[in-house]
Automatic annotation (TrEMBL):
This is mitogen-activated protein kinase kinase. It comes from Oldenlandia corymbosa var. corymbosa. Residues 33-48 have a biased composition (Low complexity). Belongs to the protein kinase superfamily. STE Ser/Thr protein kinase family. MAP kinase kinase subfamily. The lineage of its organism: Eukaryota, Viridiplantae, Streptophyta, Embryophyta, Tracheophyta. InterPro entries: Kinase-like_dom_sf, Prot_kinase_dom, Protein_kinase_ATP_BS, Ser/Thr_kinase_AS. PANTHER family: DUAL SPECIFICITY MITOGEN-ACTIVATED PROTEIN KINASE KINASE 5, DUAL SPECIFICITY MITOGEN-ACTIVATED PROTEIN KINASE KINASE 5-RELATED. GO terms for biological process: pollen-pistil interaction; response to other organism; response to stress. It catalyses: L-tyrosyl-[protein] + ATP = O-phospho-L-tyrosyl-[protein] + ADP + H(+); L-seryl-[protein] + ATP = O-phospho-L-seryl-[protein] + ADP + H(+); L-threonyl-[protein] + ATP = O-phospho-L-threonyl-[protein] + ADP + H(+).
């Protein structure tokens, strides 16, 4: 049975390095020089956009600060010593729970299959001593859509259309490669200073063996699960769960949440519990938009939040929706 995960911002309580001429080193043994990765350097910082492709080792990187930690790992903001390029480094510790380690292997496998400007880029993977592992990824300097929302940013229709256009293109890319995200939500959508949005955190994602897979597990965040995840016999096709359609449902709820400023199935400030959410998603009507929104926005959300999964639009269909027509060049 799924547990509701409380949504919260990244925990920054770990000590950060002090500014001094002596730059901090990783508290991890360095791998042999042969354990390097090839990467094309990308960064949201304008000072590093022109960095050349290079082979990177752990010895080339210095820790700048801790971005967050949990689930057996720590995410660091790191800098390449020679080029000053900025990256995010996710380190998974060897004493992590077996399920957590399986998730990191799955994330690595999926990131290696993707190559889209709308999916966070993986620059490579390190096998570290003592069984630790690390993924070097591009750094998105504005954090997540959730952190922006909690900081008071108001998302109007035009901004939401631009966000939706980018996320839908990311979903179209991964769905074409038979990958379902299964945990799409504001905290898993990263943002840079130009409001470019990328899908991240593929730890509970799945590579589909066939179009429809049995709904045999509750993974991801309960609040964003589609009705057929709870009741595939009623809302699924032939009693099955369509992971692609499930991602579209999560997209609809995410966009609604950005517009409303709080999770749309609950009154503002109310803490969710599993039973309340399950009843609301399965037995209630999808959340409504205010009467003041445009018909295009309302129609787009309705295409995402069809309770019958077979009636939801696909990512490819959504790209042709009138709500996104002015943002095809994003």
């Amino acid at each position: 049975m799924a547990l509701v995960k409380e949504r919260r911002q990244l925990n920054l309580r770990l000590p950060l390095p002090e500014h001094s001429e002596r730059r901090p080193r990783f508290p991890l043994p360095l791998p042999p020089s042969s354990a390097s990765i090839s990467t094309t350097t990308t960064s949201s910082s304008s000072s590093t956009n022109t960095a050349a492709a290079a082979a990177i080792t752990m010895a080339d990187l210095e820790k700048v600060q801790v971005l967050g930690h949990g689930n057996g790992g720590t995410v660091y903001k790191v800098r390449h010593k020679r080029t000053s390029a900025i990256y995010a480094l996710k380190v998974m510790h060897s004493d992590s729970e077996p399920n957590t380690r399986r998730q990191i292997f799955q994330e690595i496998n999926i990131l290696r299959r993707t190559d889209s400007p709308y999916v966070v880029k993986c620059h490579g993977v390190f096998d570290l001593p003592a069984g630790d592992m690390a993924i070097l990824m591009e750094y998105m300097d504005r954090g997540t859509l959730e952190s922006l929302m909690k900081s008071g940013v108001v998302f109007g229709e035009e901004t939401i259309a631009k966000i939706a256009h980018q996320v839908v293109q990311g979903l179209e890319h991964i769905h074409a490669r038979k990958i379902t995200h299964r945990d799409l939500k504001p905290s898993n959508l990263l943002v840079d200073g130009k409001m470019r949005v990328k899908i991240a955190d593929f730890g509970v994602s799945k590579i589909m063996c066939r179009t429809l897979d049995p709904c045999n597990s509750y993974v991801g965040t309960c609040a964003y699960m589609s009705p057929e995840r709870f009741d595939p016999d009623t809302y699924g096709k032939d009693g099955t769960y369509n992971g692609y359609a499930g991602d579209i449902w999560s997209l609809g709820l995410t966009l609604l949440e950005l517009f409303m400023g709080h999770f749309p199935y609950l009154p503002e400030g109310q803490r969710p519990d599993w039973a309340t959410l399950m009843c609301a998603i399965c037995f209630g009507e999808p959340p409504c938009l205010p009467a003041t929104v445009s018909g295009e926005f309302r129609g787009f959300i309705e295409c995402c939040l069809q309770k019958d999964s077979s009636k939801r639009w696909t990512a490819s269909q959504l790209l042709s929706h009138p709500f996104l027509k002015n943002f095809r060049g994003c």
